[in-house]
Amino acid sequence: MEAELLSELTALSFGGNGSVQLVPETTLLPPAWGMAMFTVRCVIPSLYLLIITVGLLGNVTLMKIFISNSAMRSVPNIFISSLAAGDLLLLVTCVPVDASRYFSEEWLFGEVGCKLIPAIQLTSVGVSVFTLTALSADRYKAIVKPMDIQTSSAVLRTCAKAIAIWIISILLSVPEAVFSELAHINDTDNATFTACIPYPMTDDMHPKIHSVLIFLVYFLIPLAIISIYYYHIAKSLIRSAHNIPGENSEHSKRQMETRKRLAKIVLVFVGFFAICWFPNHVLYMYRSFNYNEIDSSIGHMVVTLVARVLSFCNSCVNPFALYLLSESFRRHFNNQLRCRKKPQQERSASYLRNSSAIQTTSLKSNTRNTVTSVTQLNGHNLKQEMSS
């Protein structure tokens, strides 16, 4: 996704003759800008490294729990695992590529990278938002139409849906790979640098069309569908609160609480996605509709950095939200941590046992020596007494 948003370090300002200006030109900036750029190049990559580390730890652990525990292989958890896989894809492709821009104004990944990386990044975003839509539909069926009982075939159908989401996301990202191209650009000092552009640079309409389509397909339309699902879920929950049969009240209440808790988890995921990605979409459309005028202010750069960090953080938060909201996941997650600590504890226990064995052997040896000495001493005294 970030391939569309050119960094403030390599922002392009197109003139009437097709020439471009590199903004900001650090050699001509005031001291405040120079300090800001120095801070950005030091702090932001460190923050990106933290995001990658936390995201990998959380999502890998989540997938390991769902794959290794048969009891956790439910319909919602299959979708959540697919969501984690999409987040992992974003973390290992988008974040390192974006971090490289703070060290070099050149595109470092060649023509093949220019084709593949934007498509991979868009695929990961598609997997995330389409999986959230599928999760919302699943919660809608579970609460509004609870007669659809989950069976083993339902789990298989869910796996097929998750695979279909990946295929659709890949197909929708194909135009990104087709139209992305390397551009060799001259700045105001006639210095040439290379940038990866996600659309043809022939006119101003391409960035506008591109940004609007991205916003509609990967944000607005899916969130509108999710909102409709949750509107009906809310209506069903309010209605069912007044229509619980008396003889099955306890069972019905427990069942309804479980469904409400799962719906709440999905809604939290959707809320995080909307909050984290909305600034990024708005910023991209703002740039696309002001294609000839790049805002080179410090404020605009700060907004850009905040928007990017927020979008990347979305790939980290879901496992931790699930940890807080799901008791079963929290229990399995804690068990994973205990399993990692167990070998260290076993090594410590083994060391203590060996140390104890050595001390016991030493003690026994000392005891035998003491007994022998006392016996010999007593024998010597006895002989003396007999001789006297």
UniProtKB/TrEMBL annotation:
Single GO BP term: negative regulation of interleukin-6 production
Xref: CDD domains: 7tmA_NMBR (cd15125)
Keyword Cell membrane: yes
Protein name per Swiss-Prot or TrEMBL: Neuromedin-B receptor
Originating gene: NMBR
Membrane-crossing residue ranges in chain numbering: 32-57, 78-99, 119-137, 158-179, 209-231, 262-286, 298-325
Compartments it resides in: Cell membrane
Source organism of this protein record: Gallus gallus
Residue intervals of the G-protein coupled receptors family 1 profile domain: 58-322
